[in-house]
Fold:
Amino acid sequence: MSKNPIFIEIKTKAKKASKAKSLSIMALTLLSTSAASTTAFIAVFFLLLGGSAASETEFSVEWDHEKLPKSDVDLLEFPLNLEYMEAEFFSWGALGRGLDSLAPNLTMGGPPPIGVRKAQLSPVIRDIIAQFAFQEFGHLRAIKSTVRGFPRPLLNLSAESFATVMNNAFEKPLEPSFDPYANDINYLLASYVIPYVGLTGYVGANPKLKTPTAKRLVAGLLGVESGQDAVLRALLYERAFVKVLPYDFTLAEFTDKISNLRNKLGKRGLKDEGLIVNPMLGAEGRIKGNVLAGDQYSLSYDRTPEEILRIVYGSGKENKPGGFYPKGADGKIAKSHLRHEEKRFNDNKL
Ligand SMILES: *[C@@H]1O[C@H](CO)[C@@H](O)[C@H](O)[C@H]1NC(C)=O
Ligand SMILES: *[C@@H]1O[C@H](CO)[C@@H](O)[C@H](O)[C@H]1NC(C)=O
Structure:
């Protein structure tokens, strides 16, 4: 559906002057004289309903094919940050190329990621990761066909960036430093760092959404994101007691450390669990194998955007960028925290 400037104009006016009746007449005139598109019709219908609805609820006027409340727009845009990262990490890991070469429009002109590389993967793992990559491209398209979105933020996907996560997880530098791109196991462990965080974000966003359109989209994203997490966890689980060479730690120990780190950074208690747990944390409190993470009822944990920012920035603070997002995440929610920080910084300078 094409942009409809008339629609936007009507709504902007409706906000300024709430003279609903004259506007309704104006809109009716537009409707009968111009070739009315469905969006214009919906706008008119809305004004005729009383005109007050448009001025009471703040609707986003930027996008014309669906009226979403601003809060839904913000909650739908936020996960783009994670989807961009997954798209680039999986696409480069499997195919040695990212969005710039495979789907340049999806970047919306954002800078290319730092340090991302093709991983040394066996054919089956490469095939699975390539599928994940294209699934993420689809997710980017799905979100952007519903909300405007923003350009790809600067991403630091260098080996050092993942090595830093692992060092923080073990609370000491691993020797040699962890290389996510070195082999299947390392790449799967690095991937364990990613879709799960997105999944908890979708669970957290869902109860805050107001419209069926937004809920449908988030349910669809959540389904596939959980599927990816399950595939990764199952592949890792098969090798849970294998040592991650050359380190003296098993794969299960790595997942445990990574999950603990995320719990620590998120600052909202236990929302992340490794592959082998104290049976108290397993399903029904009765089993130590933990191929999927879940709460006491085996329901997925939820996280707020703030918890997610604390984790992906690696700083434990939603207003202190770093980690995978050297310049911070984008969108209204993430930016609001960065602005606070800038303001504090400037206030301190005065
Ligand atoms: C991608 O961008 C190019 C250049 O801006 C444009 O011509 C093309 O229509 C876009 N394709 C899609 C699918 O949006
Ligand atoms: C990327 O992350 C690594 C590890 O934290 C850091 O050493 C490097 O300076 C970062 N690069 C940029 C451009 O931020």
